[in-house]
Amino acid sequence: MRMERPELPLPQLHAFVVLAEELHFGRAATRLGIAQPPLSQQIRRLEDKVGYALFSREPGNIGLTPAGRELLPAARHALTDLAVGLTAAREVGSGRAGRLRIGFAASLALTVLPGLLRTFRKRFPAVDLDIQEMTTTPQLAALRERTIDIGLLREPPAHDADLGFKTVLTEPFVAVLPSSHPLTAQRTVRVEQLAECPFVLLPRAVGPPLYDQITNLCTDAGFTPQVTQHAVEWQTVCALVETGLGVSLAPESIRRIRLKGVAFRGIEPGTARTRVAVAWRKNDANPLVLRLLAALKQDPPDRPQ
């Protein structure tokens, strides 16, 4: 059976609830801020919609009819739900509440992400944060497909017609070595000293600019790295290095991955730096995106130690 959609104006419902609570036209009109005749008209119109009297009107005595008693809980519920909905809509519209979906590269859990989330949650505790770990290329696709709202990634594209990027951190590279490797005796490693070593790197597909930046460091040092193993996450890269399968070049923040069998050393030349950027859709009207960008601007991340 198809339910008929009620067409009950909110002022009439409000007037009905207030009169049901006061059971006095004068007091109800005062609460509503209107005169008694308009109140009486509102109630009459509502009764016409219902088809039955909602109040008994004996001289000096106003009471709810059975129909009125039946309607009262539903009317209160409707008004309460509307008030809650309006408040929620205003909170979301202003960027103080809602849901923000953030993609992040795993290595950024060692640098930008913790501080950013702490700052944002402190300022906007009502916002629901949906954090999704993914590498750079999937993040760019997810932004275009609108399955995330913000990306935190390494080496963003130089230009994108649909996406905006803001660099929030740069960091140098380090050599990642098995702790038993002879080069760990040095405080810094010249990149050309790695020429005869097998390499463990992230697949190029998950972040082409970063992969190319690392391989270019080798090319500039006079050799092409022999990549014998790939791993999607830097933690796995370090674990494979620990087993002796190869060496790697990685962003400096990877030092925070604590593995007993892995050593990190600065490299020479040490001028190359990798960029960490926040990414978003240029046409995104979600106020939470602007809130997060503002939080980054006010509290830029510290350089990794």
TrEMBL record:
Pfam families: HTH_1, LysR_substrate. Gene3D superfamilies: Periplasmic binding protein-like II, Winged helix-like DNA-binding domain superfamily/Winged helix DNA-binding domain. It comes from the Bacteria. GO terms for molecular function: DNA binding. Keywords: DNA-binding, Transcription, Transcription regulation. InterPro entries: LysR_HTH_N, LysR_subst-bd, WH-like_DNA-bd_sf, WH_DNA-bd_sf. Residues 8-65 form the HTH lysR-type domain. SUPFAM superfamilies: Periplasmic binding protein-like II, Winged helix' DNA-binding domain. Belongs to the LysR transcriptional regulatory family. This is DNA-binding transcriptional LysR family regulator. It comes from Streptomyces achromogenes. The lineage of its organism: Bacteria, Bacillati, Actinomycetota, Actinomycetes, Kitasatosporales.
